[in-house]
Amino acid sequence: MIPPSWLWIPLTVFAAAAQTARNTAQRHLIGELGTLGATLVRFLYGMPVLTLWLGILLALGGFELPTLTWTFAGWVTAAAFSQMAGTAFLLRAMAARSFAIGLVYSKSEVIQVAIFSVLFLGESLSLTTALAVGLATCGVVLLSPRLNASATGARSWTDAAALNGLASGATFAISAVSYRGANLALECASPFLAAAETLFWSQLVQTLLLGGWLLARNPTIVLAALRQWRVSTFAGVAGALASLTNVTALALAPASQVRTLILIEVVFSYVVSRRVFRESVSRRELAGIVLVVLGAALIVAAVR
Question: Is pTM, for the whole model, over 0.85?
Answer without folding.
Answer: no
